[in-house]
Amino acid sequence: MTYKNEKHLLAQAKKVFGEAAKAGDEQAAAIIAEFEKDYRATLADALFPFYTLTEKGKRRHLRTLLNGDYSGLIEDGIVRQSMAGLNLAWTYFPHSWSVRCGDMLTPMEVFRHHLVDALERRRALGGACETASDIRKALRTYSGTQAVSGFRPTAACALFHRYLPVSGGVTWDMCSGWGGRLLGALVSPRVVKYIGTEPCTLTFDGLCKMRDELPLLLNAMGYPYPVPTVALERIGSEDYKPKPGSLDLCFTSPPYGPGHEKYSTEQTQSCVKFPTNELWMNEFMRMTLENCRVGLKRDGFLVMNLANTKSYPTLTTDFLSLAKDRGFKLVEALQLALSKMPGTGKQDASHKHEPIFAFRKS
Fold this sequence. Notes:
Radius of gyration: 22 Å
CATH superfamily of the largest domain: Vaccinia Virus protein VP39
Strand content: 15-25%
CATH architecture of the largest domain: 3-Layer(aba) Sandwich
Number of strands: 11
Order of helices and strands: HHHEEHEHHHHEHEHEEEHHEHEE
CATH topology of the largest domain: Rossmann fold
Number of domains: 3
Distance between the termini: 57 Å
CATH class of the largest domain: Alpha Beta
Strand order of the largest sheet: 1-2-10-11-9-7-4-5-6
């Protein structure tokens, strides 16, 4: 059921409840429940505080990224990053708010069913509830809720700077996801070509919009370097076959196992094709590594950001063992600084960290 506007919604309500009144009690309850479901979905689509930016706002985010110095973000094995550009990437993926992480509530479910409680809890903790940003924070931090996370463009820029040739190179993002690495590639002079593979239809559509819009904005802003070529394919990394020896860098942050983030129920999804941890590692990741090995140049790098999760507590150990078995030699392990942890002392210790592993062919 779809609604054209508020007037149409109210008219439909009168019709539905009129039908419910004529029906028996059981039928009435079912009709009302179905309408309430549609009504909540309609309101959520209309009122949810999605990330939105005007063209001027997008230019502002791009300018901030272009002005960044990414040569010093990696120091003492720590990859530091900022939020610059992240909100720009999120504008292309409104469906991300409905993606489930494990057995947790999604922010969209909180908005539809627990919004008042979420706002009251945020106010009780001293948080404001006035702006769209405030509401998003309330939805994310509501008890029992987890939102998907995106790889920050600034971290991507730092890693491109570290692992791609000074003269520039080709990178394959095996699981393109929420566009953070694509955005980082667009503003990095080290990236000549970005290849992205992504099997989720809605996510792929968002990536295509980024590909179509952002290079035009960069050119209009007088970007001093050639904007990288962007090639996207709606396919899983286990099925993509790169040209042998064509890649300087294979770099991604894959799903952390089949039970962590379920982006869709499409049959192309790794969590659907390989539903157990063992299958996911020994089939999905194995085939992905095989494709990386074929595509990488002899002096190229494989760089992976992944971490253990509640649903896959041995993920990193299993991956390191598999990578070694598939002919990759670990040359560096970095720590990606994530959100701040309050109440700690040292600067580095005040952040959560996730590992980033860099390999070469052995």
